[in-house]
């Protein structure tokens, strides 16, 4: 064998391990509505990479951001029906489906995503809300930071300033809060807010600073009122059949990449993007109105308290232990925020 043939043979032998490497046993299609350029997408990618590394490539995660596989309001059902394998979505996009979970949306529950995520993941782990998710396999739940009011033309200093304004709301719970304040809530998922502001379909949005950053809304809003109106909840969940069909060693790896640890990793991303979104608005010279006491502000508190009571009463009338869950959430809020 001449030197050239020997070199070719050795090169081929060196490539054989790569060529014979087995494909992943599970290729998970992960659908969500954030842009691929957002920090939240990056956080999900880090989860996928960690899962792939821990499983030695037996699990791979393929991402479909920006509603490319399923629209945001249909994301949970898409996982249930295996159109997607994993999703990250807002529970409140499926109206009346997760009523006890949405107790965490009520005013004053959390001052940061880290605090809110600790509350909701603890409620899930304690079994207070887990029964609402029997049709999928939940990986982790979390919240964003405080949801505030961001408007295009009119500054909001007091509830009366909202009278008649069309404000995007993420869920029916937030809609009740906005109605109590005199606004006209308009339901829509976050990705639709930019063009809606551009066309004048809405006058503003209820959203955290993270959303203002992720969906480029500082380009369309000039006035920002920090009130801590609500805290939105999210779930990352997997098709139950896929999880149940995994061998025990892979289930264990999935379990190790679930729960409070990953809830807090997403919270960290949200809190950082809250900071960036606010800094971006300040640098652009926008008006930022910080209400003293936030949701406890004397002008706002009676209206917000009334809306919260209305929601809890409605759930209790349906036979749901809303006040028990709310009381536990408030206890957790105190300990998670310490």
Give a structural overview:
The structure is a single chain. The chain contains twelve helices and eleven strands. It has 338 residues and is an alpha/beta fold. It has two domains: 25-145 and 232-272, D-Maltodextrin-Binding Protein, domain 2 (3-Layer(aba) Sandwich), CATH 3.40.190; 147-230 and 285-336, 3-Layer(aba) Sandwich (D-Maltodextrin-Binding Protein, domain 2). Helix 4 packs across helix 12 and helix 5 packs across helix 11. The longest helix is centred in the last third of the chain and has 24 residues, at 260-283. The N and C termini lie far apart (74 Å). Residues 1-21 have low confidence and may be disordered. Residues 1-23 form the signal peptide. Keywords: Signal. InterPro entries: DctP_fam, TRAP_DctP_sf. It comes from Marinobacterium nitratireducens.
Helix content: 40-55%
CATH architecture of the largest domain: 3-Layer(aba) Sandwich
Poorly predicted sequence stretches spanning 5 or more consecutive residues: 1-21
Order of helices and strands: HEHEHEHEEEHEHEHEEHHHEHH
Mean pLDDT: 93
- Please list the strands of the largest sheet in the order they lie side by side: 7-6-8-5-9-11
CATH topology of the largest domain: D-Maltodextrin-Binding Protein, domain 2
Count up the domains: 2
Shape label: globular
Q: Structural class of the helices, strands and pairings?
A: alpha/beta
Biggest β-sheet strands, sense, barrel: 6 strands, mixed
CATH class of the largest domain: Alpha Beta
Distance between the termini: 74 Å
Number of DSSP helical runs: 12
Beta-strand percentage range: 15-25%
CATH homologous superfamily identity of the largest domain: Bacterial extracellular solute-binding protein, family 7
What oligomerization state is this entry in? single chain
Strand segment count: 11
> How much is the radius of gyration in Å?
23 Å
């Amino acid at each position: 064998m001449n030197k050239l043939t020997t070199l070719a043979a050795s090169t081929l032998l060196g490539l054989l391990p790569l060529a014979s490497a087995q494909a992943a046993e599970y290729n998970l299609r992960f659908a969500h509505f954030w842009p691929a350029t957002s920090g939240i997408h990056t956080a999900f990618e880090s989860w996928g990479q960690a899962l792939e590394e821990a499983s030695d490539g037996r699990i791979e995660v393929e991402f479909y951001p920006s509603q490319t596989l399923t629209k945001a309001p249909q994301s949970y059902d898409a996982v249930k029906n295996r159109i997607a394998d994993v999703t990250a979505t807002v529970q409140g996009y499926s109206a009346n489906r997760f009523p006890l979970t949405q107790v965490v949306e009520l005013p004053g529950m959390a001052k940061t995503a880290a605090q809110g995520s600790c509350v909701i993941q603890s409620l899930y782990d304690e079994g207070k809300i887990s029964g609402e998710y029997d049709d999928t396999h939940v990986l982790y739940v979390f919240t964003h930071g405080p949801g505030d009011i961001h408007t295009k033309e009119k500054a909001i200093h007091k509830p009366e300033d909202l009278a008649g304004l069309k404000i995007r709301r993420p869920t029916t719970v937030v809609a009740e809060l906005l109605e109590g304040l005199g606004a006209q809530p308009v339901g829509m998922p976050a990705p639709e807010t930019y063009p809606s502001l551009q066309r004048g379909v809405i006058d503003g949005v209820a959203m955290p600073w993270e959303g203002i950053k992720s969906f480029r809304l500082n380009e369309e809003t000039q006035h920002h009122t920090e009130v801590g109106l609500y805290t939105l909840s999210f779930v990352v969940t997997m098709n139950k059949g896929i999880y149940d069909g995994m061998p025990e060693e892979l289930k264990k790896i999935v379990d190790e990449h679930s729960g409070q640890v990953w809830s807090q990793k997403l919270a960290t991303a949200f809190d950082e993007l809250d900071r960036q979104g606010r800094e971006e608005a300040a640098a652009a010279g926008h008006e930022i109105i910080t209400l003293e006491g936030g949701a406890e502000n004397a002008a706002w508190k009676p209206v917000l308290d009334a809306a919260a009571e209305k929601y809890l009463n409605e759930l209790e009338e349906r036979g749901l232990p809303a006040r028990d869950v709310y009381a536990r959430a408030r206890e957790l809020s105190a300990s998670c925020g310490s």
